[in-house]
Write a structure and sequence with these properties.
Radius of gyration: 21 Å
Distance between the termini: 55 Å
Number of helices: 8
Order of helices and strands: HHHHHEEEHHEEEHE
Shape: elongated
Strand content: 15-25%
Strand order of the largest sheet: 3-4-5-6-7
Number of domains: 2
Helix content: 40-55%
Length: 202
Amino acid sequence: MTLAEVSTLRLYNQKISTTFGKSPGELVGSMGAMQAQDLIMAKRYFTCHGPATVKDFSWWSGLSISDSKKALEYIKPELISETIDSAQYWFPGPSPDYRPDKDSVFLLPAYDEFLIGYRNRSASLSLTDNPKTVSINGIFRPVIIVNGQVSGLWKRVSTKDKIRIELSFFKPVNKTILSLSDKVAQRFGKFVDKEVEVNVTS
């Protein structure tokens, strides 16, 4: 085992011990390897994806609803829940009351966790726009996120020294959103070290 691998293993053991108050060996010994693995996965999922439901976790992890509930049951004391439209959502920390004071735009790739991490995506993707975003055979397309909502699609065409980014919004947007979209596209150009040309289509 290399020094880097030893360091990674130590950090992993410390993370498990800090999170669950037990070493990996103790965790496995108290509940079995498979159940411990499910527990760790649940902890990571609800920490990173919450608010989310048991069905969301089951969808993301591939676990059965029964096993998902068992894993969630163990970490419930560390989470907070709220019921919205008869669905129970779980998340870490205090009740989310985040209200951005500025507009935001993100260009996300196909199959990004923002969408594929949830079975029910209605909080960020309307039923009207869902068929445009996810094809009938399950193909997730690159999306434009405006203030937390899927608001359009985008694609890029690369040449030797330039990238053309095409933005297609589902509905007309104001100049502020267009300006932010251009800035995001230009940042992408800097990352790949290429000039960017932005085109907005309807």
